[in-house]
Amino acid sequence: MNYQSVDFLLLQASGSQAGYLNIAFILLMFAVFWFFIIRPQSKKQKEQRNWLQELEKGDDVVTASGILGKITKIEEDIITLEVGSKVYIRVTRNAVSKELTDSVHGGEDKAK
């Protein structure tokens, strides 16, 4: 066996290791992306969806456009809000973004 064939075998072995290293790096990047971006976002969407289903008459809420109101009527996907003295607007359920206490107090606990 001459030195040229030994060098070729070493280069071939190091090339395959680099290929595995590249694949491992890509998998690691995907795992980090999923763990820090996809997973928290899907968890937040699930919590929002559950909160929207639990809305009740009398809840003070804020719409996505910033309108403050109290829920007076819920009909499947349409919610009627009282935004002033005998002033009512109808919005879709998805337009409600959060509870009024969360938006006013920055998400602090209601008991405080």
How would you describe what is shown here?
By secondary structure, the protein is α+β, with helices and mostly antiparallel strands. It folds into two domains: 1-54; 56-104, SH3 type barrels (Roll). 50% of the residues lie in helices and 26% in strands. The protein is built from two helices and five strands, in the order H-E-E-E-E-E-H. A five-stranded antiparallel sheet has the order 4-3-2-1-5. The radius of gyration is 28 Å and the shape is rod-shaped.
- Largest β sheet strand count, sense and barrel closure: 5 strands, antiparallel
Spatial shape: rod-shaped
Radius of gyration of CA atoms, rounded to a whole number = 28 Å
Class by SSE composition: alpha+beta
| Strands, count | 5
